[in-house]
Each structure stands twice: as structure tokens, then as C-alpha cells.
Design a protein that fits this description.
By secondary structure, the chain is of the alpha+beta class. 36% of the residues lie in helices and 15% in strands. The protein has an eight-stranded antiparallel β-sheet with strand order 15-14-13-12-9-11-10-16. The chain has a five-stranded antiparallel β-sheet with strand order 3-4-6-7-8. Strands 1-2-5 form a three-stranded antiparallel β-sheet, with no helix packed on it. Strand 7 and strand 8 form a beta hairpin. Helix 5 runs antiparallel to helix 6, helix 8 runs antiparallel to helix 9 and helix 9 crosses helix 10. It is elongated and about 105 Å long.
């Protein structure tokens, strides 16, 4: 109800008629009369004369209808007094001094108003739990309304501000509904209206009109309607895929469990459950009707990356096809498959409006960015019709230059190395360049895999000079299989060797090793290595270290290091020029999303460093932190 059409008589009568006590209320509370006869104009004017100022409009109108009210706000304000009860708060706890001390050198307007509120506010409550309802005449809007602050003395929190008395009472009415929403007997015109709004919003959302659905669901959620909460959480989750909503008891329903339960396990699986770890989460979910065995299985598959989102029907077949593409790196192609099949998704029941199960898939979940989440929500699905949104642009940039650039809250790679094998099956790379017995892992975060990989001194039978890389494996859009290490590459040295020859058994292979390490901003000792081989024979190579260049074979003109690395270059310019040339001349690329956010399969390569020969040496440094 808008402020222009608001009627205190109708509002308060409806509240009284809908009144039912809480489950733990005593007989006196069950028979409560919330209000009192309105105060006459003469009584209100007398109170204003006593206080020395005219009361704000919405509070004045309220008093004329009901001279006080039982608010029953949970653990805070219980009763608001009438005209004879209101008086100045007077700041009995000297909160002014405390808040003025915290203002700082350049306080904001809201901070200044709050600091001064304590000494000038009117106190409205007559019954509370160490809490106060305070009207501030110094915090007014253009309509003459005063802000109302609720201060919970037992909580130590900053007071909650409402722009007016009218806004405060509206919020208390919603809280009254929310407290009773779980009771099957709490049914009235207001609950029926909001449940109807939820159903309208559900259909709007399935038709892709989620923006129209959101305000209806927000209001229904504010009134405690369960459908409003669960549908709104799905929309918000897809708009912010990294968030961690709690879908409540939805996962306990077998119809929704395959979509929702793995999503619920995302946070504890990532080790982010702060309230007692796995046991707390398992206990909470068990209380909602899940078997502990099922929960532990889901949590385990989420942790080890073996979970598979596998819905039924045509949508499920598209999901499987998209995963096969995405698990090798072409995430944009995978998304195009999913986007085309979104209309085929079928809701398993009325309380699911989107395929949120995608977010829990270890391969496909990373594809759902906020932009793509909006695309899902804007696409009609589950048998509903409507306009189809414009496709979200592909996320992977062409080529390789992106390797030197920062990516959304991440620094650029601090060096990287990669092997490409043209036309090869990525699954065969372990046999070509892997250590003895190397096999592809399941989908893992390559950053985590590199950090957790044992070092040479921790592995039996591995020499200290060896440099075995944990590489992420995939395929480019141009048909090259790749093995990429961007998280723990060692430095290019005289002992370094290229795996391009071994990778070229069935065709052309290219190896690139970019080592940007410099001891100071002016240092030019970073190194860049390129080698190209075909059918087991190296065709050409070069290594640039600062101003020194080593080369062999006949290099294509486009890959001549003299053209790519110039004396006048600024930091990183030569590397960027070389990466651009590799894309233009050889068609090399790498999928950014897959390598920075997704889970690819990995294996451990043979050493990228050869054994020292007579007269050569090496150093192996090991750092260990000692606590004082």
C-alpha cells in the first residue's frame, strides 16, 4: 500500500483481525487487544505543547487512530505508549559521547545525525527488552517525517534506522507475519494475497521475466511466505553464482534433491563452513530429513570433483554433451550447447524455477558467470514461452596475449609453459610427455593440483634437479591438444629442455616457456623460449634472455626473435608481441575461463630440465618457515 493511499484505520484493524498469538504465548497474550482508542486532537496538541514541537505526520495520524500499540517485536520493543507516555529519551547511558568519539576526521552525514540523535530523540516504548524506539526530530525528510531508530541495548549493535514511524510499523507488521508463517492455521487475506503473488512470480520467472518476479517475491519473503524465499534465492544465486544460499528444506524433497543437495554441499565442500565444520553441516542437514550416508557421499563427490549434474531428458543430454566439450577447455562452445537447450529444461516441481544444479557441477559450474546467470533467468523454459534474450558474448579471448593480463580479481600468470600438439587427442598426452605411469586425473583445479604436488625431494626415485610439471590438459578451438603449467613453472636455464620433440610423434608440436622473472624493475633477465617440432624432429627454436638470443633451425619470419624482442621494449612488450605472433602464425590459443576458473584434468610430465653433464652444476633451494 502506497503512502498516498495509506489508511491507519484499515491497517491497524487488519493487524488486529489477523492477530494470533505465538505458539509459546500465555492466555493473556492470546486475548491481547493490540491498540487503544485514538487520542483526540486536544490530547495530541497538549502533548506537543509539553514537548515543545509538533509531532511528525505519520506518528500524529497513528495516535489519532490508536493511542499506543502492542508491537511484540521479537526480543526488542513490546509496547508503544500513547500521548501521555511519550517523552524525551535524554541519553541516560551517555551514548552521545561514545558515538562522537567514533566520528573520525571526515564523518558522513548519517554518522553525524546518529551521534546527535541520543540527546534529542523522543522515547516511544513503554515495554521492551532493554531496547528503545526513538524518534529523532533532527533527522527529517522533505515531508516532515522523523527517522525512527530501534536500539537493542543488549545487542551492542548500531541502532536500526527507519525513515519514518509509518515505515517502522510496516516492518513490524511484516515481522508479525513472518513469525507466524510456519503455522498451518495462520491463513488470512494477506497470506493468500502474497501466496498468489508467489505463483504469479513463479510463472513470470519461467517465462524469462525474472525482473518482474523479483519485487513480488521480495515482498512475499518479507511476510515470511516460504515460496517467496525459495524462489527468490534461486534468482539471486544465479545472479551471483559464487554466493551460498540456503535452500532450506527444499533438498529434502526427492523431486528437487538431485538439483539442490549438491548446491547445498558447495560451501562445506570448499572448506568454508565456519560453524563447526562438516559435523555441524551434516547434523543440520540430517535434521532436515537427509540420511547421513547420502550427505557424506554428496560431500565426498563434491570435494574430489567426481560429482556429475545429470538431469533427465533432452536437457540432460545437452548437459552431457556440454560437459564433454568443457572438460577439455572449450567452455564457450559448451555454453552455446547449454544455451540452446535451456528451453528444454523441465521443472521437477513448482518450487524449482531454474537449473541451479549446474552450479554444483565441477566442470560446468565455472561456466555460469553472473552474465550467463542472467541469460538463464531471461530464457523461457519448462514449457513456458516468451522472448529469447540476446546471447551473452563469448568469454574466452582469442589467442594467447591474455596470459600476460590480469583477469577479474586475479593477477596475470607469473610465468607459464605450455606444449601444443596439433590434431592430437588430449588423452594421449600423458603417454607422449608424461612421467612413467602418468595418467589423467579427474577434473581438478590446476592451481590446487600444482600447490599440492610433491616436490622432487619428497618423491622417491626423483632426482633433485628434475622439474616435473603438473599440467592442465585440454583442446583448443583450433584443434591443438595442450598441456599447460601456469602456477609453478621453474626458471628457464641452461639445463632446460623442450618436450616439443616428444609431443610431435604424430604431427607438429610447439612448446613455449615464458619466464618473466626480474630481480628489479630495470632488470631484463626474463626469458622466453619457443621450440617447434614435427614427427620427432625439432624444426626450429629460440631462447631470449634479456638481450641475448639463442636460435636454431630455420625460423619463420613472423617468429624471428629480432622482430619480436626489441631493445627499446618496455616490460613485457616482447612477450606480448611473441604471443600474438604465435596465434597469428601458428593458430595457437588457450581457453582463459577453463584455465583460470574451471576444473581440467591433469597429469605430471617428465622433467623439463635435463640431467647436469660433466662440468655443469645446479642448485636446489628449499625454504622452510620456522615459528619463533
Amino acid at each position: 500500500m502506497s503512502d498516498e493511499s495509506f489508511n491507519w484505520h484499515d491497517f491497524l484493524r487488519r493487524w488486529q483481525e489477523e492477530w494470533v498469538p505465538r505458539a509459546d504465548a500465555d492466555d493473556e497474550e492470546a486475548d491481547s487487544v493490540l491498540g487503544a482508542p485514538g487520542a483526540g486532537e486536544e490530547a495530541i496538541v497538549a502533548a506537543e505543547r509539553r514537548l515543545g514541537l509538533r509531532l511528525p505526520p505519520s506518528y500524529r495520524e497513528f495516535l489519532a487512530v490508536s493511542d499506543g500499540w502492542v508491537v511484540e517485536q521479537t526480543a526488542a520493543i513490546h509496547r508503544l505508549g500513547g500521548v501521555a507516555d511519550i517523552g524525551w529519551f535524554g541519553d541516560p547511558y551517555d551514548m552521545t559521547s561514545l558515538y562522537e568519539e567514533g566520528l573520525g576526521e571526515d564523518p558522513g552525514e548519517e554518522e553525524v545525525l546518529l551521534a546527535g540523535m541520543w540527546r534529542r530523540a523522543l522515547r516511544l516504548e513503554t515495554e521492551s527488552d532493554m531496547s528503545h524506539a526513538l524518534l529523532d526530530p533532527g533527522d527529517r525528510d522533505e515531508d516532515g517525517e522523523w527517522a525512527l531508530y530501534v536500539y537493542k541495548g543488549w545487542g551492542g549493535e548500531v541502532p536500526k534506522r527507519y525513515p519514518s514511524f509509518r515505515a517502522y510499523m510496516g516492518d513490524m507488521y511484516r515481522e508479525f507475519h513472518g513469525d507466524r508463517a510456519g503455522s498451518p492455521d495462520f491463513v488470512n487475506a494477506t497470506t493468500r494475497a502474497h501466496d498468489s503473488h508467489v505463483e504469479s512470480a513463479r510463472l513470470l520467472a519461467l517465462r524469462g521475466r525474472y525482473e518482474e518476479a523479483v519485487p513480488l517475491l521480495e515482498e512475499a519473503r518479507a511476510f515470511g511466505r516460504p515460496g517467496g524465499r525459495v524462489l527468490l534465492d534461486q534468482i539471486r544465486h544465479l545472479l551471483a553464482p559464487g554466493s551460498s544460499p540456503d535452500y532450506g528444506n527444499l533438498a529434502a524433497d526427492p523431486r528437487y534433491r538431485p538439483e539442490v543437495l549438491p548446491v547445498q554441499a558447495l560451501t562445506p565442500a570448499h572448506g568454508e563452513w565456519r560453524l563447526g565444520g562438516d559435523d555441524h553441516w551434516l547434523g543440520m542437514m540430517t535434521a532436515r530429513g537427509h540420511s547421513r550416508e547420502t550427505l557424506e557421499t554428496v560431500l565426498s563427490t563434491m570435494r574430489d570433483g567426481t560429482h556429475r549434474y545429470a538431469p533427465p531428458g533432452p536437457w540432460g543430454r545437452a548437459v552431457a554433451e556440454a560437459r564433454e566439450s568443457a572438460r577439455w577447455g572449450p567452455t564457450d562452445a559448451a555454453w552455446r550447447i547449454l544455451r540452446g537447450a535451456l528451453p528444454l529444461w523441465e521443472a521437477p516441481g513448482p518450487w524449482l524455477i531454474a537449473p541451479v544444479g549446474l552450479l554444483a557441477d565441477p566442470v560446468l559450474g565455472a561456466l555460469v558467470t553472473p552474465e550467463r546467470g542472467r541469460e538463464i533467468l531471461a530464457t523461457p523454459r519448462s514449457g513456458e514461452s516468451g522472448p529469447v534474450p540476446e546471447p551473452v558474448p563469448d568469454l574466452d579471448p582469442a589467442g594467447l596475449v591474455w596470459l600476460t593480463e590480469a583477469v577479474a580479481h586475479q593477477q596475470p600468470f607469473d610465468g607459464f609453459r605450455c606444449v601444443w600438439a596439433q590434431g592430437a587427442d588430449p588423452a594421449l598426452l600423458p603417454a607422449l610427455i608424461g612421467e612413467e605411469g602418468a595418467e589423467l586425473s579427474g577434473p581438478v583445479d590446476p592451481r590446487t593440483a600444482s600447490w599440492r604436488a610433491p616436490r622432487p625431494h619428497q618423491r622417491k626415485g626423483v632426482e633433485l634437479w628434475e622439474d616435473r610439471a603438473v599440467v592442465a590438459v585440454g583442446r583448443t578451438d583450433e584443434g591443438w591438444a595442450f598441456a599447460f603449467d601456469g602456477y609453478s613453472p621453474a626458471r628457464v636455464s641452461a639445463l632446460s629442455r623442450s618436450p616439443a620433440v616428444a609431443a610431435s610423434a604424430s604431427g607438429r608440436a610447439v612448446a613455449v616457456w615464458c619466464d618473466p622473472w626480474r630481480s628489479s624493475p630495470g632488470d631484463r633477465r626474463g626469458a622466453f623460449h619457443l621450440s617447434v617440432a614435427e614427427h620427432g624432429v625439432e624444426l626450429c627454436s629460440f631462447t631470449v634472455r634479456g638481450t641475448e638470443v639463442e636460435r636454431s633451425g630455420v625460423l619463420p619470419e613472423a617468429l624471428d626473435p629480432a622482430r619480436l624482442f626489441r631493445p627499446e621494449d618496455g616490460e613485457g612488450e616482447g612477450e606480448r608481441r611473441a604471443l600474438q605472433a604465435l596465434h597469428t602464425a601458428l593458430g595457437l590459443s588457450l581457453p582463459r575461463l577453463a584455465l583460470t576458473r574451471s576444473r581440467l584434468r591433469t597429469f605430471t610430465t617428465r622433467s623439463w630440465t635435463r640431467a647436469p653433464q660433466d662440468g655443469e652444476g645446479y642448485a636446489y633451494l628449499r625454504f622452510q618457515r620456522h615459528r619463533p
